[in-house]
Model the fold of this input.
Amino acid sequence: MQIDPNKSIFIQLADFIRFEIYSGKRKPNSRLESIREMAIILEVNPNTIKRVYQVLEEEGLIYCHSTLGYFVCDSEAKIKENKQKYVTEQLKSFITILKNCNVSKEEIKQILGDIHGDY
Done:
């Protein structure tokens, strides 16, 4: 994972784990690394990982088993619901930027088509 010095490490780490869950790299009920292990892997403070895990737990993406550690939630429906909500929020923010730049719907469609194929 590449850390962007211009963006909060906390946000980047939370997104990194979210994307692994949303993309299917982390399967439902699969065990996450311990806070300490994840901190070593990502070379960050364990308190940051603890905070990331707490936020993802509040979102319902992961859960903590008191003696076994953290796991991806067991509900594919919940993961899909969170993914849809996350993507919608990101698109709303991006569309606000485009509107503020006076970019038309036609221009948006053209840009999306250029980047990701025909829409």
